[in-house]
Amino acid sequence: MKLLRLGHYYSHHCFLPRRRLTSTVTSIPKICIVGSGPASFYTAQHLIKTVPRVEVDIYEQLPVPFGLVRFGVAPDHPEVKNVINTFTKTAKSPQLRFVGNVTLGRDLSLKELRNAYHAVVLAYGADKDRELGLKGEQLGNVVSARRFVGWYNGLPCDTDFPVNLDVEEAAVLGHGNVALDVARLLLTPIDKLKSTDITEHALEALSRSRVRHVKVIGRRGPLQVAFTIKELREMLNLPDCITVCNPFDFETVRSAVPNLERPRRRLTELLCKAADLSPSGNVDSNSRQFHLVFFRSPLSFQPSPDVPDTVGSMQLEVNQLDEQQHAVPTGSTETVQCGLVLRSIGYRSTQADPDVPFDIDRGHIPNISGVVQPGLYVAGWLATGPIGVILSTMTQAFGVGRAVEADVSSGRVDVSQARPGHTAIGKLLNDRGVTTVSWKDWERIDAVEQSRGKNVGKPREKIVDINEMLAVSVGTGGT
Amino acid sequence: MEGVERPQPEAKPLHLTSEPVCIFLWKESAGRNRLGIEPGLLQAPSTGLQACSVRAEVIVAMKLHVDDTVQSGRVEVTFIRANGERIKATGKEGDSLLDIVVNNSVDLEGYGACEGTLTCSTCHLIFKKEDFDRLPDKPTDEELDMLDLAYDLTDTSRLGCQITMTKELSGLEVQVPATVNDARS
């Protein structure tokens, strides 16, 4: 290696200005990413493609990769998870190292990462949810939709999530895709879920569920919904399930349709169609029903007369829209029966380490196109807030990759001095007794999950216990 | 680093369509190579033998008789990036435009994330009006649903995974929207 460099020097030195010499001995750019969801893998993919000789290390809190692709995407949407194939290709690059079971702020500090790497990209997502702060919110069965999703998708911390499905009436607060995901899971015939990678404990609980009516409640109207048309169409096409809307909610909507941009227009047309098909008069109460409820905000939750520490009903405020399309109360209220309330009003991020610049009000890291400052970047929901589909995250993450590449090639991030990267961090983790999971270790977990799934006709049976993941990762956890 | 070309993948296998008559070596440039053959052809996928490794920036080897496009069933598509760069690729009748991107290793970052299962819109392409009108299959509701999530949506947008190539469509030119791809422009 040394000989080669010398040869290079002697063959060029008489033609090149002396400072160019340093560029021929530039150290390897070392970049780490915290988190291993779509934002992380798409950033890594772009960096490996554009930054010559770069080494990218991904640190993930859990022993398993892929973030919300594994723990967020609904089990009955397996096609969406095909992105894992591309992520796996990236992970197998010799320029990428996966280090699982490492938590920023507990096992490592941001300062340590910034000292060890030329650049740090934070992409640990949004893993907390917003609360309403209403009377009765602490009652049993008033729960977070995010944790319900974690429960059926095998997020280790949500395995013992306390949810009781022995009720007929459920309400979901929020008009986003997570709200429709949980409503769909509650109303889908159980046979359709058996062949998915839904966790065994959720499948078992859902097979005994008595939930028949799900009200999905939003504070504004049909023109303001945040869910996307594909998820709505799925709800309307659910077998043995009736969609119920209030036709009065659509009075002013139809006249607005022609002036809408195409995506909003098609979504609104489909909502109007659902309203047209909605049964008028009494609906057979034995049928499964999906109610789309507009212009209602929760005010308080009341205990069930039978089980006093559990929710039994909810008081709603009736809203109308002002000129800025904000929901304002009309003054009238109504009460709906519900033995289960799923709160789905948005995710928020947390400040993983005191050195992470964090906007607590907005629940994200302030940034300009992913740049926090040269050398520190933020990708995905931690940067944008919890909005958009994988495409939006991919586009943002590629943008972060471009920003890092531009800072490295322009010298705003100085890569002329070598950084120890994983050599230093690996030693720190080892000294602190942290068991880490490599990509090879994850492949062992993956193989065991797939083989367990095969036995029960599922694509995989997810391991939900961290200790078991760790045991399987070193080949001692059975098959 | 300005002015330096994007680094190419280390090495990829080159598939030939039939027994090579004779192997020539030449340097591939951004546009046409020394033999005047479009680079897209060099990567033409087929059942043929694997000839050698290709280091795209440096040297490629290929047989002399490169006449695959006139072979029956071959189709040609040009992908145009927002920065005007034209990428010619070939496939066979029945291939989707996504197949052609994948089989030719056309460098469109993030293209086809869901692998053609109609659950994302990363294979969004924009057609000329006259081409859009002559596409044999009209978009389904499900395709339109995904397209509605795409950036730079136009009236002549389609998802590449839903367009099946026919002989009549050979020579098609399609625009790749800037926001998904063309990261460097």
Automatic annotation (TrEMBL), chain A:
Looking up PANTHER family in the UniProt record yields:
GLUTAMATE SYNTHASE 1 [NADH], CHLOROPLASTIC-LIKE (PTHR48467:SF1)
Cellular compartment(s)? Mitochondrion
Q: Which SUPFAM superfamilies match?
A: Nucleotide-binding domain (SSF51971)
State if Nucleus is listed as a keyword: no
GO BP of this protein:
cholesterol metabolic process
Question: What are the alphabetically sorted keywords of the record?
Answer: Electron transport, FAD, Flavoprotein, Mitochondrion, NADP, Oxidoreductase, Transit peptide, Transport
Q: Can you name a GO cellular component term? A: mitochondrion
Catalyzed reactions: 2 reduced [adrenodoxin] + NADP(+) + H(+) = 2 oxidized [adrenodoxin] + NADPH
- Point out the coiled-coil segments of this chain: none
Entry EC no(s): 1.18.1.6
Instruction: Tell me the cofactors it needs.
Output: FAD
Which superkingdom heads the taxonomic lineage of this protein's source?
A: Eukaryota
**Name the record gives this protein:** NADPH:adrenodoxin oxidoreductase, mitochondrial
Functional pathway: Steroid metabolism; cholesterol metabolism
Tell me the GO molecular function terms.
oxidoreductase activity
- Keyword Phosphoprotein assigned to the entry: answer is no
Residues involved in NADP(+) binding: 175-178, 219-220, 231, 388
Question: Which taxonomic lineage does the organism of this UniProt entry have?
Answer: Eukaryota, Metazoa, Ecdysozoa, Arthropoda, Hexapoda
State where FAD binds.
39, 60, 68, 104, 381, 388-390
In the record, the note on similarity to other proteins reads: Belongs to the ferredoxin--NADP reductase type 1 family.
From TrEMBL, chain B:
**Subcellular location field:** Mitochondrion
User: Can you cite a GO biological process for this protein?
Assistant: positive regulation of ecdysteroid biosynthetic process
Where does the protein principally reside? mitochondrion
> Does Iron-sulfur show up as a keyword for this record?
yes
Q: Which cofactor does it need?
A: [2Fe-2S] cluster
Which part of the chain is the 2Fe-2S ferredoxin-type domain? 75-180
The organism's superkingdom is given as Eukaryota
The record's section on Gene3D superfamilies has: 3.10.20.30
Q: Name one GO molecular function term.
A: 2 iron, 2 sulfur cluster binding
GO cellular component terms, alphabetically, are: mitochondrion
What Pfam families does UniProt report for this protein, alphabetically? Fer2 (PF00111)
Answer whether the UniProt record assigns the keyword Mitochondrion to this protein. Answer: yes
Keywords of the record, alphabetical order, are: 2Fe-2S, Electron transport, Iron, Iron-sulfur, Lipid metabolism, Metal-binding, Mitochondrion, Steroid metabolism, Steroidogenesis, Transport
Describe the task this protein carries out. Required for ecdysteroidogenesis in the prothoracic gland which is necessary for larval to pupal transition.
Family of this protein: Belongs to the adrenodoxin/putidaredoxin family.
Q: What is this protein called?
A: Adrenodoxin, mitochondrial
**What is the protein's species of origin?**
Cryptotermes secundus
